[in-house]
């Protein structure tokens, strides 16, 4: 047991001696971390033979001319040619949908005889039965999107219908009766309440049709019976 211990101690002594004799390794640094000065830009020799020009980049070739930058003129602004495009489109649509201008005049705010809220309006269509009712509101500022909301009472049930004024399906619009007094509101939705509901306007429309037939010399008829199919006698 004494020999291995002595050999171990001798080995440790020799290692300590060799560590003092052996020179320590110096700290090394890569070339990338070395401080370098600014990169100097080398110019292409002016007397470089032409056979070496193909090896140069395109931007460094001596025979390359300067690139001319073409500056195009700015396109004409549409805002300068057309100050109000919405009105132009509205007028073109009105000329197509209402060539005579009678429908637009009926709801024109500058017209004293225009249709107002509270009036009874009769609207006939190219197909189907006509619709009549009290005007609850008029939406739109006189353009092709103008519409009216009509309210009537059929079989004891309130009925409302939004009618586009300039729709191609609308054949005519007539005022059957004027409101007795000017309404203070632009939308008289309070007529939906039972205490303010005017009820059915069928009698008012039938009386208007009879008066119109007497003036024009036509045959008077009811609004609902004008478009009913004729049946045989029983």
From TrEMBL:
Q: Which domain of life is it from?
A: Eukaryota
Is the keyword DNA-binding assigned to this protein? no
What is one GO cellular-component annotation here?
mitochondrial large ribosomal subunit
Q: Please provide the record's keywords in A-Z order.
A: Ribonucleoprotein, Ribosomal protein
Single annotated GO MF: structural constituent of ribosome
Fetch the InterPro entries from UniProt: Ribosomal_bL19 (IPR001857), Ribosomal_bL19_sf (IPR038657), Translation_prot_SH3-like_sf (IPR008991)
Biological process terms in GO annotation: translation
Ribosomal protein as a keyword of this entry, yes or no, is yes
The entry sums up its family as follows: Belongs to the bacterial ribosomal protein bL19 family.
The protein's name in its UniProt record: 54S ribosomal protein subunit img1, mitochondrial
Q: Look up and give the organism this protein is from.
A: Cladophialophora chaetospira
């Amino acid at each position: 047991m004494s020999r291995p211990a002595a050999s171990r101690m001798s080995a440790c002594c020799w290692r300590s001696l060799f560590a003092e004799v052996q020179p320590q390794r110096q700290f090394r640094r890569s070339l990338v971390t070395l401080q370098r000065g600014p990169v100097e830009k080398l110019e292409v020799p002016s007397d470089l033979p032409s056979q070496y020009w193909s090896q140069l980049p395109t931007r460094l070739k001596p025979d390359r001319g300067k690139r001319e930058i073409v500056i195009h003129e700015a396109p004409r602004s549409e805002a300068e040619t057309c100050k109000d495009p919405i009105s132009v489109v509205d007028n073109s649509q009105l000329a197509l949908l209402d060539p005579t201008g009678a429908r637009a005049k009926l709801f024109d705010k500058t017209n004293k005889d225009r249709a107002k809220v509270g009036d009874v309006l009769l609207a006939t269509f190219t197909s189907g039965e006509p619709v009549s009712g009290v005007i609850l509101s008029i939406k739109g500022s006189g353009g092709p999107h103008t519409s009216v909301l009509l309210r009537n009472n059929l079989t004891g049930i309130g009925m409302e219908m939004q009618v586009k004024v300039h729709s191609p399906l609308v054949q005519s619009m007539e005022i059957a009766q004027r409101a007795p007094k000017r309404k203070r509101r632009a939308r008289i939705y309070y007529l939906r309440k039972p205490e303010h509901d005017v009820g059915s306007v069928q009698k008012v429309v039938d009386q208007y049709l009879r008066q119109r037939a007497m003036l024009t010399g036509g045959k008077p008829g009811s609004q609902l019976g004008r478009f009913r199919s004729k049946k045989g006698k029983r």
